[in-house]
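Team,

Forwarding the record for the chain on the shared tracking sheet. I've put the sequence and predicted structure together so nobody has to dig through attachments.
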Amino acid sequence: MFLNSQKAFTMIEMIAAIFVVNLGIMAVFSLLIQSTTFINNTASNLTATYLAQEGIEIVRNIRDSNFLKMNQGEEASWNDNLSVGADYYNFDYRSQSIPDNVNCSGQIYLQISNGYYACSPNPAVKFQRKIRINQISGDKMEVLVEVLWTERGKNHNVSVQETLYRWY
């Protein structure tokens, strides 16, 4: 009987072993949760960066459309349809002017629609994009695009700035 008792685990050893195993499992779960959070934050940051760059491209497209109008003999200026000086939220990939009161009147959020981020009045949507255009001189303007979103109770933003010129 004395030999058998040395081979068996005591209750204290069993509790200690369960504690160590549980500690390891909890460490793995904690790592998985942190990894998932990091991946979600990275995906949102990447999307916001693309949306900010798209904002710059929208302004560039409007400017280039003005040049085409001028080359076709229409009365236009290189910075037509680009309002200067205020923060504007309502514009998306369809916009032909900033602000876009045709497609985006009063809609300050961006929501995926048919594979594209389009204006939406839904405040439950994740992203907002605002733009500020400053006329620096007669031949130069500064465009600042900022994308804002809230994730896990924290506010985030990505900003992109570009200087556009009258190149004709």
